[in-house]
Write a structure and sequence with these properties.
single chain; about 160 residues; alpha+beta; seven-stranded mixed β-sheet; about 20% helix; globular
């Protein structure tokens, strides 16, 4: 009986130690892949990018609309719950971007480069299904030689839709 009590009494201590260790190693995994559910770090080849995650319908609808711009090395990653041919437009956008569609394995399947706000109401749609869409400052795709078949690496774990 005492052995069972000791086992249950030490469980919270073990959980606290494990939690402290995981936090010291960069965070606890969550649905978004990081302890900060709103951001993630990605690598495209040798290039690291800090992205804001859009994991809900509301966040995906708002996107980067109304913002003044993106800092170099930053972007927004739209995370969808399933594969689809997700279309994007430049409604309420104030600056040009590159848009990259990625499949469930984070492989580039389509890209639209230097998409300008003046293109609205044109709609940009990939030729094949995607799970993720990455918006980056205009010129990123050309500058970093990103092409169909390239693979993005999620350095903090794979983001998931929260819906």
């Amino acid at each position: 009986m005492y052995a069972r009590y000791i086992a249950f009494a030490t469980l919270p201590i073990a959980a606290a130690v494990l939690g402290a260790y995981l936090l010291s190693q960069g965070g606890l995994p969550t649905l978004s892949g990081t302890i900060d559910e709103a951001h993630a770090r990605l690598a495209l080849g040798d290039t690291l990018v800090e992205v804001e995650l859009a994991t809900t319908t509301g966040a995906r609808s708002q996107g980067l609309g109304g913002r003044a711009g993106l800092a170099e090395g930053s972007g927004m990653l739209f995370v969808f719950p399933k594969d689809g041919t997700y279309s994007f437009w430049m409604k309420d956008m104030l600056f040009a971007i590159d848009i990259i569609w990625l499949d469930a394995n984070a492989r580039v399947v389509f890209a639209a480069e230097h998409v300008v706000p003046e293109s609205y109401p044109a709609i940009f749609t990939p030729h094949t299904a995607a799970r993720y869409v990455l918006e980056l400052p205009a010129g990123f795709v050309a500058e970093h030689h990103i092409g169909v078949g390239d693979v993005l690496t999620f350095t903090d774990g794979v983001p998931r839709s929260t819906e």
